[in-house]
């Protein structure tokens, strides 16, 4: 099992199943209206008695007492804006999907940006994987329409919805913005179970350029998302292998090169390392179920191994802020 150590914090976390010492899964961390300060850190999902809700923990805060951002449940796929002020996520109710935003203060109510019932996208549903552009003004996300997984964009105020990849021969997974805000890098393939391409898509035109039809010698498909480094030179992704899912990093250019496996777990088979996020240009955070618990870890791209614990008891984490 991994070394349970939180850098920069004088805290020792005792993990037993899904119970976390000092944490109330439905009311802790200022989620009841107390408010909080968030400038840079993680947003994530925890599943408590009121369902799947969003939480945030600043880098300078206590990961055992995160700030609760939602109370309605049914929250999926959170992503935090570059300035750290807003979270976009998917709210699900039955077969309906809504793209919503909520402030990272812990005191605001969610706002609906776009709904699957909108006449602007007839037959659309199963929203997932939102991502902000660098200025926080636009959100790209994945949806299903007519049996195809497509990329779409919409302004954060709900205006100017557009399907980006109509007519493309591929189906799409999650996307991540390049630093210029003009393009996203997305996982793609010919079926949703075989997302083994990386594709560069123009957010204004929907233009598509294949970066790679291979993820290297070890990874077979992207499991959750690829994510572009802040300087735009690298991509991190979670790749399924013959022995589980690990985090990989490759160099971005006109093609994908020099793919390196970052995470490994000696003596533990079938570990799922997923949901990578960049913390600067030289460190990747990720979700891991090693040892039987879902926790967020970090690892330097100059090393390999199991990583170091940052946030206990988290699902679908995303890192952001300035």
Salient structural properties:
single chain, 322 residues, mainly beta, four-stranded antiparallel sheet, 26 strands, disordered N terminus
Describe this structure as you would to a colleague.
With 322 residues, the chain is mostly beta strands. 0% of the residues lie in helices and 50% in strands. The strands form seven sheets. The chain has a four-stranded antiparallel β-sheet with strand order 5-4-3-26, with no helix packed on it. A four-stranded antiparallel β-sheet has the order 6-7-8-9, with no helix packed on it. β7 and β8 form a beta hairpin. The protein is globular. The N terminus is likely disordered.
Short description:
By secondary structure, this protein is an all-beta fold. It has no helices and 26 strands. A 4-stranded antiparallel beta sheet has the order 5-4-3-26, with no helix packed on it. It has a 4-stranded antiparallel beta sheet with strand order 6-7-8-9, with no helix packed on it.
Layout: helices, strands, pairs:
Elements: E1 15-16, E2 19-20, E3 40-48, E4 51-58, E5 67-68, E6 75-80, E7 86-93, E8 96-103, E9 111-115, E10 124-132, E11 138-145, E12 148-155, E13 162-163, E14 171-177, E15 183-189, E16 197-202, E17 208-212, E18 221-228, E19 234-241, E20 244-252, E21 256-261, E22 273-278, E23 283-288, E24 295-300, E25 308-311, E26 315-321
Antiparallel strand pairs: 1-2, 3-4, 3-26, 4-5, 6-7, 7-8, 8-9, 10-11, 11-12, 12-13, 14-15, 15-16, 16-17, 18-19, 19-20, 20-21, 22-23, 23-24, 24-25
């Amino acid at each position: 099992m991994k070394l349970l150590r939180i850098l920069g914090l004088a805290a020792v976390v005792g993990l037993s199943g899904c119970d976390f010492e000092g944490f109330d899964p439905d009311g802790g961390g200022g989620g009841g209206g107390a408010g909080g300060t968030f400038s840079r850190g993680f947003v994530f999902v925890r599943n408590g008695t009121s369902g799947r809700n969003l939480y945030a923990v600043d880098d300078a805060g206590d990961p055992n007492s995160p700030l609760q951002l939602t109370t309605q449940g049914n929250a999926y796929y959170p992503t935090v804006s570059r300035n750290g002020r807003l979270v976009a996520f998917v709210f699900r109710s039955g077969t309906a999907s809504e793209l919503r935003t909520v402030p990272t203060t812990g005191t605001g109510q969610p706002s609906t940006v776009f709904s699957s019932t909108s006449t602007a996208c007839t037959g659309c549903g199963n929203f997932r994987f939102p991502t902000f552009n660098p200025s926080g003004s636009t959100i790209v996300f994945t949806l299903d329409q007519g049996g195809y997984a497509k990329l779409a964009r919409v302004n954060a105020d709900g205006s100017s919805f557009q399907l980006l990849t109509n007519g493309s021969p591929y189906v799409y997974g999650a996307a991540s913005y390049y630093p210029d805000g003009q393009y996203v890098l997305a996982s793609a393939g010919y079926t949703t179970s075989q997302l083994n391409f990386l594709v560069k898509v123009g957010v204004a035109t929907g233009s598509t350029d294949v970066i790679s039809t291979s993820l290297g010698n070890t990874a077979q498909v992207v499991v959750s998302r690829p994510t572009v480094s802040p300087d735009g030179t690298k991509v991190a992704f979670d790749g399924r292998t013959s022995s589980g899912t690990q985090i990989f990093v490759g160099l971005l250019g006109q093609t994908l090169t020099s793919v390196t496996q970052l995470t490994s777990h000696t003596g533990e088979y079938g570990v799922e390392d997923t949901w990578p996020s960049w913390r600067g240009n030289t460190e990747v955070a990720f979700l891991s179920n090693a040892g039987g618990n879902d926790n967020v870890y970090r690892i330097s791209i100059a090393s390999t191994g199991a990583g170091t614990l940052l946030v206990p008891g988290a699902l679908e984490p995303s890192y952001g802020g300035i």
